[in-house]
Amino acid sequence: MEKQSKKEKKSVVKIFVEELSRSSFVFILLAIFSGLVIGGVLAAATTEDVYEAFRSSFGEGILESLNLIWETYSSLFTGSFGKPAKMVTALFSGDRDLIREAYKPFLESLVTSTPYIFTGVAIALGFQAGVFNIGAEGQLFMGSIMSAWAGFTFKGLPPIIHVPLALGIGFLAGALWGFIPGWLKAKTGAHEVINTIMMNYIAFNLTEFLIGGPMQDPVDSFKTPLIEESAKLPRLFADPLRFNVGFFIAIGVAVLTWYLLYKTTWGFEVRSVGLNPDASRYAGINATMITIASLALSGAFSGLGGASIMLGVTFRQTQSLSTGYGFDAIAVALLAKNHPIGVILSAMLFGFMRHGSRLMQLKTGIPIDIISILQGLIIFFLAAPAIIRTFYRLKEPKKEFEE
Amino acid sequence: MANQRNQLIKKKVKPQEPGATRRIVMGAVILLFGVFIWFAFSRNIGADTETIFVLTPGGGAETVPDVQFNTLRGLNIFAGICAALGAYQIAVGFKKYTNVILAVAGGILTISFLAWGAGGGSINVGGMLRVMILRSVPITLGALAGVLSERAGVVNLAIEGMMISGALVAAIVGSIAGLWVGMLAAIVAGGLTAILHAILSIKYRIDQTISGTIINITSIGLTSYLVTKILQNRDLHYLNDSGFFQPIHLPVLSKIPFIGPILFSHNIYIYFMYILIILLSVILFYTRWGLRLRSVGEHPKAADTLGVNVFRMRYVAVILSGMMAGFAGSFFVLGSIGYFEQQMTAGRGFISLAAMIFGKWTPIGSFGASLLFGFAEALATNLSILKFPIPAELLLTLPYVITMVVLAGVVGRSRGPAAAGIPYEKESLH
To answer: Minimal CB count within 10 Å: which of A7, A18, A302, B223?
Structure first.
């Protein structure tokens, strides 16, 4: 406070720019921007047409690269969000089919984002408790297959019972899958990173076994039977839109987690254990129970995510190829700095990118794996603030207390 | 008076010996093995069934006579041995040989399992052992990479990513310039990836777990992207067709009956593996450089005071680790199928880390652990072909389940290098 009176009065603009350069939100945007730039360069560097153009002349080569990058990102945008002009005119026309078509990309992206919200919250919760849950993918699988089982086994139940039942079973399956590594970590100190990864592979193989054996459909091989109508998550719009209540359940889970973490004693204990387990134990907090409970709850949310996919979109388990949700969720959580509400936003970013990348692959031939590369790059830039700071010549964030 | 004193002395409670619980638990486990063999296997086999263990490993070797025996009798003998060992362990305990006995009991359990499953037929044990050695190669090499890095204090979770990068580079460069150049290129690729990990975790002091995961995500994404691009274009297919090294039958050694073909009739990677295990053991534990490396991982501050450049040592260790991981990755292509497939490493980078922990951060121990995992893999693939009563997919989970059991400390708590995972900060002198 004394320092301020010593300084001259700065212009408002200068103060604004200074504050901006220190804010962590700008950081995140710069990280995303840098990732997109490098991703674009990579895409250009690996496309035949660009090399063709460079052979003609340097200028043409640059033009072609810029063209490609533009095509790539614009199709990514339209694929994920839709064409804004179209969306406005459709709304005004009042034609139901036209509206459905115009808003399809947006709504489908929300569907794709839903599992990201679940798994992102799960991993963020884990991080806050000081555990690194890489097992979200396996927990998602367990939630998926078990909710499928609940979906096709119980017949004749009203939806009001069947849906929560199936979701609940998915929740519990994921919780079990998170409990085991959590218990092992708390009781034996075994590194949860390796154990959760092992649980992933066990889940994949177990699912493979189940759909080829005990849970196989009597008619279609290597699939589970279709779940009952009563177990399906209600959809909000007619076909082909698949937007369902799962999205709102996900938002609910995120809000609930935020409340738990920041407004309850338990949440305080969780964050305390995450920051300093020894000090927490000294303060009387049962770090062991917290670790186990956190990993179990984390697994439960991932399981719920799997259940939401099963009950809302796919309706039967057909394969055990990795969906990628569990691993991308790590990026989602890091991007949101492990804050549950932030997770909603970053989950939507990743969900939109993932859905839009399909159209991108169709239009430009760029494989959808580029999304993984983008994610890796974004986390890379996020995790190494020093790199970004050097790159963009930003100042260090001002410390709250001057020691 | 003397009587009273004697009585007091007699009444003195015998001090509970340390480790009694563990002794009894281990003994109970071994005993349970025996019971399990009897319960699950002996009771389900007819008295007339015979099992044949084919011991000829194949690969043009001399034939070794098969071992044939009455299944039921064999199983009962095995069960009896386990029960006896277990009882002895509970009562007296094998002390420092407990782990060895546990391994032996595990071996007996496995043999019983094979005998039971192959009852009425035959099973090629020799062939399976040969496959075990083959399958253990990437895990051993990955574990060696882990040892190099963690002994210096840097947790290296990125072995998986470095492996898969090595594999792709080996495939592409191998297709263009030949197998040996491909191998070299993979080593370089691993080293370069490691530089990234080193910079992130040593210079920028990022959590080593996160930096490792970043590299994994990016590597897997990048390799999948590139190989998809290649496969999209017919003209580029030649880039993913490197071929693989042919097996070399060592002149005298491979002629040894039974052991010969199992250990000495493989391609060059296996022989490199043997050399590297010995080399690394010697370097780590019998040279000054190795001592410095280990000191940096145990107590970097002390090492620093004695003049060891902690940062440089860690950089070197991580880069060597990456080179080893890249080499391991090249095996998947150049030592195996001859081309690259998406996600072909299938988590072996992580299993390597488990093997390293199981092997107590030593090269030889890691090799032993990898053999176990290799055997589990060989078992799973072999048994699914033989129509064993247990479904293949469940058997495939065996390596992973074993990893978790191992990490839980069934084989004793493993203590890693004391300073592993903690970024080193030079304290200022004022």
So the answer is: A7
Please report how the helices B288-298 and B310-332 are oriented relative to each other, as an axis angle in degrees rounded to 10. Answer: 100
Question: Which tokens sit at A328?
Answer: 């991308």
Tokens 């176990």 appear where? B372
Domain B127-407 in CATH 1.10.3470: yes
Rounded to two decimals, the ipTM of the complex is: 0.74
Spell out where A167-251 has E strands. Answer: none
Residues of chain B with CATH 1.10.3470: 127-407
A367: cis peptide before it, omega within 30°?
Answer: no
**Would an 8 Å CB–CB cutoff place B157 in contact with chain A?**
yes
Query: Which two tokens mark B41?
Result: 């296997």
C-alpha distance from residue A389 to each of A26, A287, B218 (Å): 11, 36, 22
Nearest to B217 among A189, A376, A386 (CB): A376
A160 touches chain B (CB under 8 A): no
How many Å apart are CA B359 and CA B361, to the nearest integer?
6
Interface test with A, best of B231, B400, B401 (most A CBs within 10 A): B400
C-alpha B369, offset from chain centre: 4
Q: What is the largest CA-CA distance in chain A?
A: 82
Distance from CA of B236 to the nearest CA of A (A): 11
Q: Record the tokens describing residue A100, joined without a space.
A: 């459905």
Domain ranges of chain A: 110-351
B412 at interface of A, judged by CB pairs closer than 8 A: no
Q: Give, in order, the Cα–Cα distances in Å from A188 to each of A184, B135, B155, B397, B417.
A: 5, 29, 19, 22, 17
Question: How buried is residue B311: exposed, middle or buried, by Cβ count under 10 Å (0-12/13-18/19+)?
Answer: middle
Q: What is the overall mean pLDDT for chain A?
A: 81
pLDDT of residue A110 exceeding 80: yes
- CA–CA gap between residue B333 and residue B172 (Å, rounded): 10
- Number of Cβ atoms within 10 Å of the Cβ of B331: 30
- Backbone φ and ψ of B123, nearest 5°: -140, 135
CB distance from A391 to chain B under 8 Å?
A: no
Query: A83 vs A73, A86, A95, A104, A353, CA distance in Å?
Result: 13, 5, 17, 10, 15
Q: What pLDDT, in 10s, does the model give residues B137-179? A: 999 999 999 999 999 989 888 999 999 999 999 988 988 888 8
Question: Does A38 contact chain B (CB < 8 Å)?
Answer: no
Q: Do the Cβ atoms of A367 and B229 come within 8 Å?
A: yes
